[in-house]
Amino acid sequence: MSLGAALRVTRGLSGLLPRLPPRWGHGRACTPPLLLAQQRSNSTSTKIKVEFDPSSGVAVMRLQSPPVNSLSLDFLTEFCISLEKLEMDKSCRGLIITSNQPKVFSAGLDILEMYGKSPERCGEFWKAVQEMWLKLYSSDMITIAAINGSSPAGGCLMALTCDYRIMADQPRYTIGLNETLLGIVAPFWFKDTMANTVGHRTTEMALQLGLLYSPSEALKVGLVDQLVPEDQILSTATQTMTRWLAIPDHARQITKSMMRKPTIDRLASNREADIQNFVNFITKDSIQKSLRTYLEILKKKKA
Amino acid sequence: MSLGAALRVTRGLSGLLPRLPPRWGHGRACTPPLLLAQQRSNSTSTKIKVEFDPSSGVAVMRLQSPPVNSLSLDFLTEFCISLEKLEMDKSCRGLIITSNQPKVFSAGLDILEMYGKSPERCGEFWKAVQEMWLKLYSSDMITIAAINGSSPAGGCLMALTCDYRIMADQPRYTIGLNETLLGIVAPFWFKDTMANTVGHRTTEMALQLGLLYSPSEALKVGLVDQLVPEDQILSTATQTMTRWLAIPDHARQITKSMMRKPTIDRLASNREADIQNFVNFITKDSIQKSLRTYLEILKKKKA
Amino acid sequence: MSLGAALRVTRGLSGLLPRLPPRWGHGRACTPPLLLAQQRSNSTSTKIKVEFDPSSGVAVMRLQSPPVNSLSLDFLTEFCISLEKLEMDKSCRGLIITSNQPKVFSAGLDILEMYGKSPERCGEFWKAVQEMWLKLYSSDMITIAAINGSSPAGGCLMALTCDYRIMADQPRYTIGLNETLLGIVAPFWFKDTMANTVGHRTTEMALQLGLLYSPSEALKVGLVDQLVPEDQILSTATQTMTRWLAIPDHARQITKSMMRKPTIDRLASNREADIQNFVNFITKDSIQKSLRTYLEILKKKKA
C-alpha cells in the first residue's frame, strides 16, 4: 500500500481511533458452538445495548464497543445473539441501529482480527462477519441505520444491510467501502449489497478507488436515504419507523425477501469457499505487510 | 392490514372508485379456451376502444371500463385480443394506450376477481394477468403509455410494460406498485419490470412501502419519462411516436427483445408455478380477510 | 432504413467523414494467425501512437487513423497488439486513450468491413472487435478515455470499456450506441457494457432509439464521468490517473475483475456463436442494402 493511500485512509478515519483497543495484539480463545448456545440464554452483552419498547414494537440497538465499534469476533458474536433474540420475539417488528461512541458509527472490521492470526482463527472471524450480514440482510424486522458518525468499510456494510439509512449531516463524517485503500478487497457480497443500493457503475468506481463519501455526497449517489442534524437522528429514525410499521408485516416481509433472496443465496450457498478465499488472501505475506504498515500508521497517529 | 395503511390506500385512490362495479360480488362463468377463440373473430369489444390510423401506422387504445378500468378477467381478455389483432397487422407499428375514464388510467387488478373466488377461477384470472404482461412487454410494436390519470398497482404495471411513459402533470394523480398496502405482494415479474425501469434500490423501497408517487416524484425516480399538461398528453404521445417510428423496425425490435427477453423468459418458463403461488397466497383466510376489510372501506367511502 | 433516420445519422456524424478512406471498396488480404504473431514483434504501428512514461507508469495511446479513427480490422489488430504489449509490461500501470484526429474520438466500426465482404472476412473482423473489448474491459491497467471528439457506436463502446471517461465540453460532439439508426443492432456485450454504466432503463431507450448524447446529456445520464474544456482534457486525464495510481494495484485489479468478470465471461464463453450471429445478420440482403444506402448518403455528403 502506498503511503499516499495510507494517509488518505487515516485522514478518512481522522479522530476515529483516539485510543487503541486495550486487547491490542492479544489472542482470544475460540468460542465453541456449545458455549455460544449457552451464552445465548444468559449473556450480559457489554458491547451492544438493546432497548426494546413493547408498546411500539421497536428495539434500539446501541453499539458501544470503545473506541470505534470495531467489528471484532466478540462484537460480531454479541451482535448476532442480540439480533437473533429480537428476531425470535414476534412482538419486535422494527430495529434501529445506532452508535453510543462519539463521531463513529462503526469503523468496520477489526484489523487486529486479521493481522498475525492463525488461518483457523481468521476463518472463524470471517464466518462471524458472514453471519452478521446474512442475519441482518434477511431480517424480518424493519431495520433502520441511524448513522451518527463515520462508517467506513464493514461499518458501511452494516448500514447498507438495513432497510433505510439516515445519516448525521456532519461534513467531517464519511461513509464508504474503502477496503482497497488498505490493499484488501471487499468480497462479492459487500459488492452485491452496494450495487443493490447505488447501482453497478457507482459501485465499480467506489470500490476500485476505495471512496469515502461525505454525507451530502452519500445522499447524492444514494448510499444513504436522508440527512438530518445529528441531534435529530434518533427522533427522525423513530418517525420513519412509524411509517414503515403502517405496512402489513407479512406482505412487507415477503416483498423484502423477494428483493434480497437472490443476493443472500449467492453467499449462503458458497460460505465455505468464501471463508477459504478470505483466509488464503488475508494470510498472504504481502497482505499481512500492508496491514502492519497500516497499523503502524495508526499507532503513530495515536502517539 | 392496519387501518392506517387502508386509509392511505383510499387516500391514494381518492376519487377513483365513485361507483362500485355493477357485478359486485357476483360470479362469472369461466370462459373455455374454445369460446375464447371464437370470440376473437367476432368480438365487439366494449371495454377497450381501438382506433387504427393506417396512414401513420399507429393505433390508439382507449381503456373505457367504468368506473376505473379495473383489470378484470373480461377486461384482460379483451385487452389481449385487441393487442394480438394489432400485433398481427404488420401495418401497425405503434400503439398508444390511454384512458377514456376521468382521473384514472387504470386502478389495477380487480379486487373482486380475487375475493371469494374458487382457486380455479383465481388461477384463470392470474393467467390472464400474465398474458397481458407477456404480450405487452414483448410487443414488436412501439408502445407508449399516455397516463392521463392515477395508475396504482396493476395499472402501474401496464404503464411500466410500455416503451415510453408520458404522464399528465396533475398533482392529484398517483402512480406506483402499492400492493403491500393491501396486504398482498407484487409478484417477481412486477418487481423485475419495475427494477428494469428504476433500478433495484428504488424498487426495494417502493415495493416494501407500497409507495404511490406524484407525477413529479415519478419523473424524478424515472417511473415515467415525461410530464405534460393533461390536455396535451395525446398530442405529445403522437409526436413522441413519430420519433420512434423513424427507427428501422427490425433493428429496434431485435434490440427491444435483447433488453427484455431474460425478464420475459423468467415468467414464461415458470407460469404454472407462478399461478399456483398466486392462488395459494390469495385464497388464504388472512389475505381474504384483508381484501374484505379493504372492500368494506371502499363501500363506506362510496356511501 | 428510413431516410429520416439516415439523415439523423449523418447529422449526428456531421463533419466526421470529410474524406472517405482511400481503400474505399477495396478488399484486404486475410491475416493468418501466424503472420499476426510475427507482426507482434516487429510491427511499426501507424494507426496508433503509444507514448509510455516509465517515471509515472502511464502510457498515452493516440488514435490516428484518418479521417475518423474507424475501427477497421487493421486498426483493431494494431490496437490489440499495442494493448497487449503495455499489459505485459508490469511497469505500465495506467493507460490514457485519446484521439489525434480533429473532432472525433472514434467513429466506430468501419462500415466498409461489413459491406460486400465474404462471411469469412466478416467473421474475422468481428473476432477482432470482440478481442478489443475483451482485452480492454479486462485490462489490469487503469484505463481512462480522454474523449476529445464525437464517439458514436463502436467509438462509444471503446470509451465505455475504460475505467473512467472524461469528455471535451464541446456541444457539437456526440456520444452513444446509435447502431439502430443504421438498421443494425448492438450485440449483447455492447448492451451489457452500457447497462453496467448507465443502468437498464437508460440503455433500453438509448439502444432502441440509437440516441447520440451531447456531452452535457452524456454527463447527466452517466455515460461519461466528467466534462472539461477540450484543451484541458489530457491534463485532467493525467491528474485523474494520479488519483487512481494511489490505490494499491493488486486490490484494485481484483476489485475490477470482480465487477467485470461476469460480463466478460458471457462473451468469452460464447464467442463462436456471437461471431456466427453477427455474420448471419450482417450478410443478409436487407442489411447490406441498408448499409449501401448509408454509404451512398455519406458519399453524397462528401461530394
Automatic annotation (TrEMBL), chains A, B, C:
Keywords: Acetylation, Fatty acid metabolism, Isomerase, Lipid metabolism, Mitochondrion, Transit peptide. It holds the Pfam family ECH_1. One of its GO terms (cellular component) is mitochondrial matrix. It is found in: Mitochondrion matrix. Pathway: Lipid metabolism; fatty acid beta-oxidation. One of its GO terms (biological process) is fatty acid beta-oxidation. Its EC number is 5.3.3.8. It is an enzyme of class 5 (isomerase). It catalyses: (3Z)-dodecenoyl-CoA = (2E)-dodecenoyl-CoA; (3Z)-hexenoyl-CoA = (2E)-hexenoyl-CoA; (2E)-tetradecenoyl-CoA = (3Z)-tetradecenoyl-CoA; (3Z)-octenoyl-CoA = (2E)-octenoyl-CoA. Gene3D superfamilies: 2-enoyl-CoA Hydratase, Chain A, domain 1 (3.90.226.10), 6.10.250.170. GO terms for molecular function: delta(3)-delta(2)-enoyl-CoA isomerase activity. InterPro entries: ClpP/crotonase-like_dom_sf, Enoyl-CoA_hyd/isom_CS, Enoyl-CoA_hydra/iso. Belongs to the enoyl-CoA hydratase/isomerase family. Key enzyme of fatty acid beta-oxidation. Able to isomerize both 3-cis (3Z) and 3-trans (3E) double bonds into the 2-trans (2E) form in a range of enoyl-CoA species, with a preference for (3Z)-enoyl-CoAs over (3E)-enoyl-CoAs. The catalytic efficiency of this enzyme is not affected by the fatty acyl chain length. Homotrimer. This is Enoyl-CoA delta isomerase 1, mitochondrial. It comes from Oryzias melastigma (Marine medaka).
